[in-house]
Amino acid sequence: MKTFYTINFSESNPKKELLRELKAALLGKNIDYKNIKSEDVLVDIGDGVVHSPKIIVNNSCVDIEDAYFWFRSKGNSRRMISVIASLLDTLGVAFSDPFKKYASKIHSKPMQAIRLSGANIRIPRTLISTVLGLTANEQYIKDNMIFPVVFKADGSQGRNVWKVNSVEDIKHRLSQVSEKRTEIFVIQEVVTGADYDIRALFFKDKFIGAIRRQGSGFLNNYSQGGNVEKYTLTSEEMAICQEAKAVSLLDYIGVDFMVDSKGRPVIIELQNGPGSSAMRITHPGLNIGESIVDSLT
User: Fold this and answer.
1) What pTM, to 2 d.p., does this model score?
2) Which domains does the chain have, with CATH numbers?
3) Model pLDDT, residue 158
4) CA distance 297 to 293
């Protein structure tokens, strides 16, 4: 072991005696010790293909090679700790209390993006941050992301999602959203190419159907006024959707993707318990309940 990291430890916390013992023992073995505040972290989960995942603190990449992480949860830190733990797990880096990776909203879109990237499934380059992490790592964001980007706070059906042109725009949007929806948030590069997206609906291994969605503005969601039509997946699109479904930890799932300027499917996000109105409109006679029961019997 080269480096021992603690997350959210300090000399004044209830474990101060243990911390002092740890630091002395590490010093005796010439192992580096570093403490990180989870709210200062920016997680760059890459794009699943070209850009590799990284943990960023104060605009610098944390060296996680031959390292161990010991977490302490406090206040609103649980969601970011789950993000960090999940990323470390996909990278094979040791950390304390493996349940931490399941501690908060394991089905959420940021956590799904980590699983997709960890499985080398193509996604837009994606960052996960807290409000303080945005400020602490502002220069890294400016240097590594191509604006405009998509900013996503907690929400569904296209709510709390915006295309923004700068870090200042992100800060402005953050001021308009409740703190509960910005404990962590996503910054994602825009997929250049198609001005529409595709949703493929699955229950376990059964493919139910797919729709093409296109809006008059940035969002394509049917609930936001987007137009929908039945869509036939190509073999490549079906394959990447099945790969995404396999790592999702979900049974009933909507896999959303776009096709980039090179003709490659890029997974945008995975939907837990997706709505079915648009699917029913475009697939006359479709009985989703029957499809689910058939797949179980």
Assistant:
1) 0.91
2) 3-189 (no CATH), 197-296 (3.30.470.20)
3) 60
4) 6
